[in-house]
Amino acid sequence: MTPTFLEGKHALVTGASSGLGWQFALTLARAGAKVTIAARSTDKLEELAKEIESFDGRAFPVRMDVCDNLSIQEAVAAAETELGPVNILVNNSGVSALSPSESISEEDFDKVMDTNAKGAFFVAQAVAQSMIKHGHGGKIINIASVAANRVLRQNIAYCMSKAAVQHMTLALADEWGRYKIQVNGINPGYIVTGINRDYWESEPGKKLIQKLPGRRVGDPEHLDGVLLLLAGPGSDFMNGSMIEVDDGLTARGF
């Protein structure tokens, strides 16, 4: 593949204001895609857009609250008005709420499920409706987690939501394959981001790292290869696949 093999494609990345979403947007833009970067707060999106424009990429920041279906619809419409039909969706928005299961609040539970599961579905639905209308197919990449298949203690809502995202990926692949829409997903392992960096440098974090198969945690860039595979022509015969990028964590079992 050439470095710009996504040239002419329009990618929409949700949760793009930080962490994995920020890296996903940069990676797709460097591969030649026009990128709509979406999040609830647009301040950081403007900064990301400038970084993409610094290497002659094209980025369109748009406000999207994935817990609000009207906001999703308006954001997708604005993105397509600005950059044309969406060819690639990276469905990345996500939150967590650490708590013992016996004491998690309904508010926290709903926030996680509404963002990670319900929100992910309605973003996928909005983009798929456009892909079906235009008749050219496309790529939907759902970002789940190793938590879809294994327990992360005191993170019940997150685990449930990511299991839902994984099953959603399979169900949508089955339904939308007839429209030439490939729906696949990534299950990242432990990845260092700005939000969790302090934890990995703490004593509990260091102890956890020593229990991992490779005695290390990943960086967002470790997901670049699988992202580009699923966004590009290399995945044209892949549909309903979930790919673990976790340095052996899932293979180790429970």
What does this structure look like?
This protein is α/β, with parallel strands linked by helices and 254 residues long. It has one domain: Rossmann fold. 43% of the residues lie in helices and 15% in strands. The protein has helices at 19-30, 43-54, 69-83, 106-134, 156-176, 197-200, 203-209, 224-231, and strands at residues 10-14, 34-39, 59-63, 88-91, 138-143, 181-188, 242-245. The chain has a 7-stranded parallel β-sheet with strand order 3-2-1-4-5-6-7, sandwiched between helices. β5 (138-143), α5 and β6 form a beta-alpha-beta unit. α1 packs across α8 and α3 (69-83) packs parallel to α4 (106-134). The radius of gyration is 17 Å and the shape is globular.
Write the layout of secondary structure elements.
Elements (H helix, E strand, L loop, with lengths): L9 E5 L4 H12 L3 E6 L3 H12 L4 E5 L5 H15 L4 E4 L14 H29 L3 E6 L12 H21 L4 E8 L8 H4 L2 H7 L14 H8 L10 E4 L9
Parallel strand pairs: 1-2, 1-4, 2-3, 4-5, 5-6, 6-7
Helix pairs in contact: 1-8, 3-4, 4-5
Helix content: 40-55%
* Tally of discrete structural domains: 1
Sheet/helix structural class: alpha/beta
Q: In one word, what is the shape?
A: globular
Distance between the termini: 37 Å
Q: What is the overall pLDDT average?
A: 96
Radius of gyration: 17 Å
**Spatial strand sequence of the major β-sheet:** 3-2-1-4-5-6-7
What ranges have pLDDT less than 50 throughout 5 or more consecutive residues?
none
CATH class reads: Alpha Beta
Question: Can you tell me the CATH topology?
Answer: Rossmann fold
The number of helical runs is: 8
Q: Major sheet, described briefly? A: 7 strands, parallel
